[in-house]
Amino acid sequence: MPEIILLSNARNSFPHLIEPQTQVDATTGKTRISYSIDLVMQPDSPSFKAFMAEVQKIAFTKWGENAGAVLQMIQADRKTRCFGSGNEKIDKKTFKPYKGYENMVYVTAIKDRPPQVIDTEGRAAEDGNTMAYQMLTRKMYAGCYLNVAVRPWLQENKFGRGIRCELIAVQFSTDGEAFGEGNADASGMFGAVATPVGAAPTPSGIAAPFGAAPGLPSFFN
């Protein structure tokens, strides 16, 4: 079985850790649920080098003398691999690499159930349904840095050959500049809300939220 590799201090991008992605297979009609994440790193990152070394090892173990040719075919088709140059990830709106990807490398890791989540003390949350788990994953915004355990694996089936990556466990590492535009600030359009003239105060001095309709008793008297 392939080794589990720890990608240390990798930048979090396109996270689907709280709410999974849902995709429908066009051929079978079956729905697939998956938790996934992109991990962006420097090309000379020791973590990325360790990941690629494991990919090479399992490829030569499985495909032997044909491994070099198979790996070249996989490298030529981005859809068949879970890793690559960040310059390949093009934003369809700007026609440039996504923010944070330029001149970097990435690994895409996927799992069909929630990955294990580790807190900053090294303790694991029980599972994806606990409040602790939800609180930890909500801290893992796009742009922050994570420590992530992954395991590469080889695809060889009717859909062809490929290199995929299983998402094992994630841990928040450090903050980073958030990806995306963020929430718009419209506070300058608003002022203080004035108390309506003639509003009747309640005994506590707070204006009653509703007045009594004519002929009906008021619940605030």
Task: Describe the model.
- With 221 residues, this protein is of the alpha+beta class.
- The chain has a single domain, classed as Nucleic acid-binding proteins (OB fold (Dihydrolipoamide Acetyltransferase, E2P)), CATH 2.40.50.
- It has helices spanning 46-63, 67-76, 131-138; strands spanning 5-24, 31-41, 83-85, 105-111, 116-118, 145-157, 160-174.
- The radius of gyration is 26 Å and the shape is globular.
- Mean pLDDT is 85; it is low at 204-221.
Write the layout of secondary structure elements.
Blueprint: E1 5-24, E2 31-41, H1 46-63, H2 67-76, E3 83-85, E4 105-111, E5 116-118, H3 131-138, E6 145-157, E7 160-174
Parallel strand pairs: 5-7
Antiparallel strand pairs: 1-2, 1-6, 2-4, 3-4, 6-7
CATH class: Mainly Beta
Helix content: 10-25%
**Number of domain units:** 1
For the largest beta sheet, what order do the strands appear in spatially?
A: 3-4-2-1-6-7-5
Largest sheet at a glance? 7 strands, mixed
Q: Could you tell me the radius of gyration in angstroms?
A: 26 Å
Number of strands: 7
Query: What is the CATH superfamily?
Result: Nucleic acid-binding proteins
CATH architecture: Beta Barrel
Number of helices: 3
Q: Describe the global form.
A: globular
Q: What structural class do the secondary elements suggest?
A: alpha+beta
Proportion in β-strands? 25-35%
CATH topology: OB fold (Dihydrolipoamide Acetyltransferase, E2P)
Note the run of SSEs as H and E.
EEHHEEEHEE
How far apart are the termini? 74 Å
Show unreliable segments.
204-221
Mean pLDDT: 85
